[in-house]
Amino acid sequence: MAGVFVFSEDGALAQQLLTPALELKKALGQQLVAVTADEDTAKKLATLGADLVVLLRAEQKTPEALVPEFGDLCARENASVVLVGGTLRGKHVAAQVAARLQAGLATDAKTLQIAGGKLLCTRILYAGLGICEEEVELPAVATIPPRTFLAPAAAASAGKVETLDVKADTRVAVASTTPISTEGVDISAASKLVSVGRGFRKQEDLNLAQELAGSLKAELACTRGIAEDEHWLPLARYVGISGQTVKPEIYLAVGLSGQVQHMVGCRESKVIVAVNNDERAPIFEAADYGIVGNLYEVLPLLTAALKN
Amino acid sequence: MPKLLVCYKWALDEQDIKINRDDLSLDASRAKGKISDFDRNAIEEASLIVEKQGGTVDALSYGTASVKQSIKDALSRGPNKVMWIGDGSAEIADAFVIANVLAAAARKFGPYDVILCGEGSSDMFYQQTAPRLAQLLGLPCVSFVQKMTLEGEVLTATRKLSDCLEQVSVKGPVVVSVLSEINKPRIPTLKQVLGAAKKPNAEIKIADLGLTPEQLTPKAVRKSAKGFVMSRKNVIYKESDAAANVAKLVASLAAEGLR
To answer: Taking CB atoms and an 8 Å limit, are B96 and A250 in contact across chains?
Structure first.
């Protein structure tokens, strides 16, 4: 029995996946099957339009350990499309299931539809410089980033929940997990950000940005170089393709050139402001407002002006 | 002594790709190749391991004919040998085909104790190669690794996931994908660059890998690509008087309701 399958270890994301999955179900005329290892999530998904929820019961519940059984289930049931929540764990799972099904996989699909009997997705390439349409043969797998879709409304009738006892893949032993401390700051939730790059000559000079942030009631963010190479700010504060994605009201970029890998993480900001001494820096093309000038001169003036 | 394999991609440098403003087409005609950023971390990690505790590193790359340009750079970063597959099929290869080719080569020239890949390539960022390879080779996979040590056959690693760090251990052979924060790739010294010229490289013909036409046919096909253009106001203040610029910017922010 063919079907559209969804899986995410993140309960909220699993619900979001049902929204595109319901559209695909309609286009393909197939059942919608949600797979989860969490009992509460299973009950919830059954109320949101999944025809069948398969609750995997195993000794080890990490998504990676469930790959063989999840992959076998998709193969056995002739899955047409498998949608996986695009967390890092989810990307690992999706790639392995795709290999198991000898299927194509669209990474970080932003839109999905069935066209000409194939799955048509849009996604980014060249670190966000471009967007492309990818057509994937069925069976097809896609990962979908968190918060791309809203969860659907409750369905008229509840789906069935079936429990499946499975054997986990325990070759990789998990010794411990430590939650990542973000030092109380989630820059992706901040409404104003002052973001710093390599235009700052030394770590103490970030005080200038800190003071500006204070006058704006903004949080500090940075480029990968500042966090990863210089270690001047924690990794949780860096914006970019492999870092945070932010959408503040104002993104004030200081002393950063605006490389695509960075901009993909902030380009949905409402207003982008740049301060840079290089008039030709790409950041000015991406900015609503900008000042060409020496940040060591501009920042104290700007901080003072904003305080008044 | 461990035998390591590191896979890398010769990718177009996205900094050189321009967006044509008229039709939003992407112009890569002036783009140069580079070893994909995260793959440099994988090469570095493999090299650090054998420099510290012995063993060998083979580097493997599948690309179009241009992949040949990567050999010297790859060898100057530490590996003992480069195996390269330069074939036109790479032009449209998706992650399915890439993994099939790399897995076939790893099988033919292995076995390897650890196979390393970057987290994703700088051009397509599919983030699929390591987990797909592991699945195809029947090996365990440890993805998104921030820190790793190899003691005998046992790999101990820290994975960095969205909300947690996970400490894992696994008995090899194993496939690993590394994050960029795992190390800082070396800038090859003159000695390393000169030494690279003396190291061996071997071309592998795709026809010798025993792959079926189906295994070389992409499942995902790019239908169209266009540049992402932000529509921004681009109001830039560039007087020589910094105070005047600041005053204008503050007025603009006030007009946006952002003060």
So the answer is: no
